[in-house]
Amino acid sequence: MSKKLGDLAEEKAAEYLRNEGFTVVERNFYSRFGEIDIIAKKGDTYHFIEVKSGSGYDPVYNITAAKLKKIIKTLNIYCKSRNITSAYTIDAVIVTDRIEFIENLTIT
Predict the structure, then answer these.
(1) Which CATH number is associated with domain 3-102?
(2) Which pLDDT band holds residue 93 (cuts at 50, 70, 90)?
(3) CA-CA distance, 34 to 14, in Å (whole number)?
(4) Whole-angstrom Cα distance, residue 79 to residue 107?
(5) Cα dihedral angle (19, 103, 35, 108), rounded to 10 degrees?
(6) Helices (H), the chain
(7) CA 85 distance to own-chain centroid
(8) Lowest CB count within 10 Å: 18, 24, 60, 101, which one?
């Protein structure tokens, strides 16, 4: 997928989250381990969100255990650098012809 399409999917995801009552805190946070597409907050909970998009297949399958491990390492760096001790969850926003929010991804 091109960067342009990825940026468009992230913009749609951020708009969706704002409409659902989230505050988008930061986008495209990078560490040496990887990137978190969107960091949002709703209530007292931080949401570290991976955005996936595509057509002709379900892009959720691109979120692998290895990807989740990188997200966890990166969110730990983010939380330490900002002294965040609040609850958090790792989520996904899947952008296809519709938008789907998947909360609390885990490694199995």
Answers:
(1) 3.40.1350.10
(2) very high
(3) 19
(4) 20
(5) -170
(6) 3-19, 65-81
(7) 19
(8) 18
